[in-house]
Design a protein that fits this description.
The chain contains 14 helices and no strands. It is mostly helical. It has three domains: 67 residues, Alpha Horseshoe (Serine Threonine Protein Phosphatase 5, Tetratricopeptide repeat); 67 residues, Alpha Horseshoe (Serine Threonine Protein Phosphatase 5, Tetratricopeptide repeat); 67 residues. The protein starts with a helix and ends with a helix. The N terminus is likely disordered.
Length: 264
């Protein structure tokens, strides 16, 4: 024991003045760091596994099962913004708009530049009749990622039209169509906004372009009817009658009545 003590004293005398006495702790700390790093990597890998499995379940229609997996991923990694976002998608599929909004809000808190989370939270607010809140979120999504914001522009346009801001709606539909010019629905809605604003010729152009892109769209009967009214207002009675008959053939009863009364 005395030899060991003397050896320790000798070792201490060799240390430069002020050097910390670690006596083997460097190796211990390094080992502990490796263990912690390995544990963290394993936890992250497990969280990713649950997230990916949740995505597969959500895509196959098992939204409840997906939520279970996304929740597990969040329990493992509470800062996993993507898992919150994906859980919001699953909740939205189940009609839980407020739950989806809460998850998108959490994802945004973790990543304030999460454009898709702003976009989807805006859509949920729109479906919840909160158009003002939707416009604020969609505007944020557009500011973060304007190049891929056609959907955000289209949704914001719809909300602006709901608030009777028809010029704002026309502007947003136009921006959406600059990014993706082949969306018939936006052309139809822009045409309606133009018609309400008094631009009947512009409305006719939009209706016609939309019907060219997608002649079998669910809104086709309504659009033929609206184009008939626009054409009639512009004095094109023959064109209006053709559109009324087409709308009537697609089940629009009002168009059938008008055609019967005004067209031979």
């Amino acid at each position: 024991m005395r030899r060991q003590t003397n050896a320790l004293v000798a070792a201490l005398l060799l240390l430069p003045l002020g050097q910390p006495l670690l006596l083997g702790s460097t190796t211990a700390l390094a080992t502990a760091a490796v263990v912690l790093s390995t544990q963290a990597a394993h936890a992250q890998s497990t969280a990713v596994h649950h997230n990916n499995r949740g995505v597969d379940k959500n895509n196959s229609g098992d939204h409840q099962g997906a939520i279970v997996d996304f929740t597990k991923a969040i329990e493992i990694d509470p800062q996993y913004a993507l898992a919150y976002y994906n859980r919001g998608l699953a909740k939205s599929e189940l009609g839980d708009h407020q739950g989806a909004i809460a998850d998108y809000t959490k994802a945004i808190a973790i990543n304030p530049q999460y454009a898709s989370a702003y976009n989807n939270r805006g859509l949920e607010k729109m479906d919840s009749d909160d158009c003002q809140g939707a416009i604020a979120d969609l505007t944020k999504a557009i500011r973060i990622n304007s190049k891929n914001a056609d959907g955000a522009y289209g949704a914001r346009a719809f909300c602006r039209a709901q608030l009777k801001d028809y010029q704002g709606a026309i502007s947003d539909y136009s921006k959406a169509l600059e990014i993706d010019p082949d969306v018939a629905l936006w052309l139809f809605h822009r045409g309606i906004a133009k018609y309400i604003s008094g631009d009947r010729k512009g409305a006719i152009q939009d209706y016609t372009q939309g019907l060219t892109i997608d002649p079998t769209h669910d809104m086709s009967g309504t659009i033929y009817y609206f184009r008939a009214r626009s054409r009639g207002a512009e004095g094109d009675i023959q064109g209006a009658c053709l559109d009324l008959k087409k709308a009537a053939s697609l089940g629009k009863e009002d168009a059938a009545k008008l055609a019967k009364r005004n067209c031979r």
